[in-house]
Amino acid sequence: MKKAIFLDRDGTLNPDPGYISDPNNFELFPDVGNALSKLQKAGYLLILITNQSGISRGLITLNQLEAVHTKLKKLLLQDAVKLDAIYYCPHHPNHPYEGITNCNCRKPEPGLILKAITDFDIDVASSYMIGDRSSDIKIAQRTSVTPILIGKSLISGFENVATYETLSAAAEAILSKARW
Ligand SMILES: [Mg+2]
């Protein structure tokens, strides 16, 4: 079995202006490539888990999402980082997409991580979900991976979740097993 880092995208890897449809508006936070490089070298799969309801809302086309992810991959390659997979949810409860409103893949629903666990034979006990919102913590808890929050402050109700200001700091903690 393999160990994995599940990664939220917006607000975790990149600044989040909301519904990014143009690759020119997509940039990584400083040091993200370096942090992911260290995790990848330590043997973790790197798997993106992202809600992209802009698709169902009609604000982003699939081609645009693909172009943004091509930019993401290109930026990560500067640090020789290669994502192992990208899983996204296009749905939203108020915006039917291909007839679906109540999906099981919009975080905090567990669908995307459950699919990745099956696809890659992942050991949840040695895996982490890193994100910036309560939905990221909840999907971690529902799939039995360890949640890590990126942000300047704790989220109410989740004060016991490990919180770091940057992805770099979170990566260092994982690699040093500071808390685990
Ligand atoms: Mg986020």
- Helix/strand/pairing category: alpha/beta
CATH level-4 homologous superfamily: HAD superfamily/HAD-like
- What is the CATH topology? Rossmann fold
Number of domains: 1
Which hetero ligands occur in this complex?
Answer: magnesium ion
* Backbone CA Rg: 15 Å
Quantity of strands, as a count: 6
Low-confidence stretches: none
* Beta-strand content: 15-25%
The average pLDDT is: 96
Biggest pleated-sheet summary: 6 strands, parallel
- First-last Cα distance: 19 Å
What's the number of helices? 5
CATH architecture assignment name: 3-Layer(aba) Sandwich
Provide the helix percentage: 25-40%
List keywords for this structure.
single chain; 180 residues; alpha/beta; Rossmann fold; 6-stranded parallel sheet; 31% helix; globular; binds magnesium ion
Report on the architecture of this protein:
The protein has one domain (4-176): HAD superfamily/HAD-like (Rossmann fold), CATH 3.40.50.1000. The protein contains 5 helices and 6 strands, in the order βαβαβαβαββα. The chain has helices spanning 32-41, 62-77, 111-120, 134-143, 167-176, and strands at 4-7, 45-51, 85-89, 128-131, 146-150, 162-164. It has a 6-stranded parallel sheet. The structure holds magnesium ion. Magnesium ion is lined by residues 8, 10-12, 131-133.
